[in-house]
Design brief:
alpha/beta, Rossmann fold, 3 domains, two-stranded antiparallel sheet, 15 helices, 9 strands, about 50% helix, binds adenosine-5'-triphosphate, binds magnesium ion
């Protein structure tokens, strides 16, 4: 029997747990041409959710355009991604495609047969413009496209926080904001997982995007629904999972959407028809082993001091990391060093302060860190 749990990209038609309220609210914001900043920790289901929202909007004949800013390395790269997503959306509708070429005249779409993709669409600039000037022209062109598309447009910028990595980031924010506010017929969703950075872009008084979008935090999955989701997936694949085990999984991962699929996936792999306590423990360990490369990569990007702190928090959450007792117990060095490291870890969204308590954001990463220390 095929494993019913998905932990890589979630197909749009795959079973989805809960989120009805979110889908309804987000659809409503999109229909009102409101802008939304959708944020949560990593692997909470933001991309899957906006794709579902866009699928519904496409059915209502809105132009649903999705683009990912992951890894953008220059303003030109960003403008090119924008243009190519608009052309891709129009491709297959000859009159619309021609219009888009007229609106976005600073870019020329280039279609090439591609052995893997069928046809690949890339873009080339038509003039010598570059950088922010090219971005201005691209956004003006996008504005003309939106104005012409009477049924309305919905544009998603996934991993939006990546723009702060650009050298000209403040200027880029300013240009984007000034164009977007004139796009009356469009709703923009700014999506991302580095919550501090996104929050600063939209909620710092001096920043161009200040208060220009509805803040929409995506919460973890509610426990009951998440447990029911797990039970149902086992059931439809011919296995029986006791309620207590499903609940244990949800509690251990604090309703973290990715792990609601990841842990049961491994449990499913190693179990027989009826899931036992032993399957749970073995499956959990197997999932941890599978995630090891991801966790190791997270650690590799950190300094020794930062690793010490995140390990301390995995071991013991605290309201007062600066207390002499906590610092001594975990060997955390100087207050100054601790301050800097905590700030950096929060910016990376590896740790968070939840109702005053500092903790590791990803609970399973936390479990892994604890075992690393214990050497098991
Ligand atoms: N509501 C849900 N029901 C079932 N599974 C879900 C749900 N939400 C998320 N998932 C699981 O979590 C995984 C990660 O989801 P997704 O890639 O959409 O998250 P994300 O928040 O965009 O992550 P990232 O911040 O890394 O881009 C999905 O592949 C899926 O397995
Ligand atoms: Mg995503």
């Amino acid at each position: 029997m095929q494993n019913p749990f998905h932990f890589r990209e979630l197909p749009v038609e795959a079973p989805f747990c809960n989120r009805q309220v979110e889908i309804k609210e987000l659809l409503s914001h999109a229909s009102n041409a409101a802008n939304v900043v959708l944020f949560s920790p990593r692997r909470y289901g933001k991309t899957s959710l906006v794709k579902k929202v866009q699928q519904q909007l496409s059915k209502k004949k809105l132009a649903a355009i999705y683009m990912d800013f992951f890894g953008i390395d220059s303003v030109d790269d960003m403008s090119a991604r924008l243009a190519s997503r608009v052309f891709s959306f129009c491709h297959g509708n000859e009159p619309l495609f021609k219009k888009a070429i007229g609106f976005l005249s600073v870019w020329r779409p280039v279609l090439r047969p591609d052995p893997e993709y069928g046809i690949s669409l890339t873009v080339e600039p038509t003039a010598r413009k570059k950088g922010v000037e090219l971005l201005e022209d691209t956004l003006s062109g996008l504005g003309r496209f939106i104005k012409d598309y009477r049924r309305g447009c919905h544009i998603v910028f996934d991993e939006f926080q990546e723009i702060v990595e650009l050298r000209e980031s403040l200027q880029v924010e300013g240009i984007m904001r000034s164009h977007i506010q004139t796009h009356a017929n469009a709703s923009y969703f700014f999506v991302g997982s580095r919550r501090r950075i996104l929050n600063d872009i939209f909620n710092e008084k001096k920043r161009p995007f200040y208060r220009s979008a509805i803040n929409y935090p995506l919460p973890p999955l509610p426990s009951e629904e998440a447990a029911e989701f797990i039970l149902e997936q086992f059931r439809r694949s011919g296995k029986v999972c006791p309620q207590a085990i499903a609940t244990r999984i949800v509690e251990a991962v604090r309703g973290y959407p990715y792990y609601i699929q990841r842990i049961p996936y491994s449990v499913f792999e190693i179990s027989g028809k009826r899931i036992t306590e032993e399957d749970y423990t073995k499956g959990f360990r197997k999932a941890l082993e599978g995630e090891r490369p991801v966790y190791e990569a997270l650690l590799q990007s950190l300094s020794l001091q930062q690793i010490k702190i995140i390990s301390a928090l995995a071991d013991q959450v605290t309201e007062s990391p600066y207390s002499a007792e906590y610092m001594a117990r975990h060997g955390l060095g100087s207050v100054g060093g601790l301050q800097g490291a905590l700030k950096k870890l929060m910016e990376l969204d590896y740790i968070e302060q939840d109702r005053g308590v500092f903790q590791v954001v990803d609970p399973v990463f936390g479990i892994w860190l604890r075992h690393l220390k214990e050497g098991s």
